[in-house]
Amino acid sequence: MGRLTIATRASALALWQARYIRDRIGELFPDVEVELLELTSRGDKILDRPLALVGGKGHFTKELEDAMLEGRAQMAVHSLKDVPTFIPEGLSLAAITRREDQSDVFLSHRYAAIDALPSGAIVGTTSLRRRMQLLRRRPDLRVRDLRGNVNTRLRKLAEGEYDGIILAAIGLERLGLLASIPHVERLAWMIPPMGQAALGIEIVADDPLARRIAAALDDEATHLCTWIERDFVSAVGAGCSAPVAVNARFVAEGTIEVRAMLGYPDGSEVLYDETTCTPDEASSAGTAFAHRFIDRGALELLAEAEKRAFKEERPERL
Q: Which fold has domain 2-98+197-218?
């Protein structure tokens, strides 16, 4: 019998994900005893301002990675979209689970859809990616920061602080919360972030049991697509909070479609492109696609986007 400790954030969604992986390991490796190590991440502690204003990367992963490097855990379960493209030495992003519904959803107690919102309506989201795409489509709306766990965000919506909010469908589905919202619109036009709706399994690189288990949890098709996305984000130098949307998906056997958008948080200037590749080309497709954006000024655009991000929430220098 082997033993494995999984580090996880203590939020409701993170615990759902960790327990799901624990149960999958139980099915695949019934002789392995699995326990969870619950931790509070920096991202869970910072609730008074957008993470994009705090700086740095790995707001939701550092404490879990520290636990593995200190020998307190051999594996961590992350929402892949929260995992920076840089992995600390001694650790490995060894598996990516099968991706589920990648949609962003608009939620409201008053309006059936984003296009039904009146001019000046308040929409809650902290994501610069969502802000960029929403204001590109509806520049007449007001976007206000939205922090807290999923239940806190839904409570703020119910209390009337927002006319609508935008969240990832997958988290709401996993927690069984969609049925409680009067109006739900799936936003097919909104490009997801790198890694949305997949779980990233990070392990201690030289732990043979953790590596064997991770190999059994990995989904090859999702791994290929999300690695294209991660390579794209790495090449343009964007952090987890940057206004960058990128999504790769199989559209036919042997064909992967990749779409990406990046630009200013207010949607006033964006770059968009799409391409296709084969699975054999996936290892270089993300970087090559990113260079098409770089040739069009993506690095300069993102540098300016960082200056503009949440400008109304930054204290002006005197």
A: D-Maltodextrin-Binding Protein; domain 2 (3.40.190)
